[in-house]
Amino acid sequence: ARLQAKCGGRFSFDFKSSSATLQNGVQVQHLLGNLPPDEFTCERLSISMEPPEETRAPSEADPHFDLRLGEVLVTRLEAVGTDPLKDFVAEKQVVLEAPAIGVNSQSKRLIVDLKKGEVGFYGHLDVPEAIHSTVILNYQGVRFLAPQISYRAAPREEGEGKHLGWLAAIGPGELTTSSSSPVVTEHSMGDTTVRWKESLRMSPSLDKYGSQLIVVKGQTLVDNADHGYLTSEHLEVWLEKADPQGVGKRTEDNSLA
User: Fold this and answer.
1) What residues does 177 pair with on adjacent strands?
2) Quick check: 55 pLDDT over 60?
3) CA-closest candidate to residue 219, choices 173, 250, 186
């Protein structure tokens, strides 16, 4: 994978910290061979890097994701937009489009830690008196709205697909799924809305290996077009990977196998 970046303003490079900063109208492309490229735009982009493997110390850990700018290894990205200034500057968001994995988002700030496998979407700048807005994140037919959304992938040593990692949507938010989504399976929830006032968190379950626990807090509402609605102050949901041989499928008496 290769990264290409350009800007309409100043470019600076700090040799001591191996970091670059691009400003004003920043456009970034993540090239993935024959796949559609990932693209995002922002007003300022900071890129932290490391030298090629042959010049890195043997003790340094490999990154969670391998992303390069030329031959240099990219370890961290921070992209920010701008708050509006009346009659002077319009509000500008960090806009991400990643069609290869079915992701698009809008936020005021986006931080990607490639070494740790962490992504953070924030609806405000990291400055005093910043204007707070809502992060919009669409992932394979699931739409999240919240002031802050963060995700950490499962460690490499645990093996790909063993669990879904950790996700947190902090602050009042909403999750929606649709029966008209391009990603629909027999296990999809159909037209469903989940709302909360405090948080939604997902993590690997400690009780059963490979399953996920979702905890929703604060005036929770779950509304499904086919099955009605549920309200609760605290809601816990356990998820298990669907068995392609039939676990989770409907039986003749309409119960779940």
Assistant:
1) 142, 192
2) no
3) 173
